[in-house]
Design brief:
This protein has about 180 residues and is α/β, with parallel strands linked by helices. The protein has 3 helices and 10 strands, in the order E-E-H-E-H-E-E-E-H-E-E-E-E. Helix 1 packs across helix 2. The radius of gyration is 16 Å and the shape is globular. It starts with a strand and ends in a 6-residue tail after the last strand. The structure holds inosinic acid (IMP) and magnesium ion.
Length: about 180
């Protein structure tokens, strides 16, 4: 059990499960981009740990860039996405957007709009986690690691109001038996 701010979280997924999923994704991406030099575009802050492990397992030439967006406050999406740090020049690049988790899809929709404006050669989306029950958009998600129920999780880069990113496993919000 871990306590972050006012909330308690319980163990959900161990390191082995995460690493297995990351490796499978890296293998698929390596095959698909064999003849290309993709740019992994990490969405800060949450994707930094996933992207680090994904890149280490990726075989072939690749580049990295980051952009910083914000849509979450506490444990729910505000629905509004703001850009805090731009990705730099991606014109003509084959971009793989790397997200920690796709929830409503608002963040992705925002970033895809930006990439189209930038004139990228191609883009695909990789996310370690997807909450299918919360996802409201029609954008296709090319590489999904693990589908999870609509529950708030922390660890492996994911936070609750800034805390929990350094936990190496995934914890989920403890269910309240009185609910
Ligand atoms: P979306 O825009 O609603 O798809 O939300 C995506 C972003 O919200 C992710 O990149 C995360 O930063 C954050 N987020 C969504 N669900 C969770 C969660 O369960 N734990 C921690 N952060 C989350
Ligand atoms: Mg994020």
């Amino acid at each position: 059990m871990v306590k972050l701010h006012d909330l308690e979280f319980e163990p959900y997924l161990d390191q082995q499960t995460l690493q297995k999923s990351v490796k499978q994704l890296a293998e698929r991406i390596s095959k698909d981009y064999e003849s290309k030099t993709p740019v992994f575009l990490g969405i800060l802050n949450g994707a930094f740990m996933f992207l680090s492990d994904l890149m280490k397992q990726y075989e072939g030439d690749c580049e990295i860039s980051f952009t910083k967006l914000a849509s979450y406050e506490g444990t729910s999406s505000t629905g509004e996405v703001t850009t805090l740090l731009g990705a730099g020049n991606l014109k003509g690049k084959d971009v793989i957007v790397v997200e920690d988790i796709v929830d409503t899809g608002n963040t992705l929709e925002h970033i895809v709009g930006v990439l189209k404006k930038e004139g990228v050669a191609s883009y695909k989306i990789a996310t370690l986690f997807l909450k299918p029950e919360a996802y409201k958009k029609s954008l296709s998600l090319d590489y999904v690691g693990l589908e999870i129920p609509n529950k708030f999780i922390v660890g492996y880069g994911l936070d609750y109001n800034g805390l929990g990113r350094n936990i190496s496993e995934i914890y989920q919000l403890k269910s309240n038996l009185n609910d």
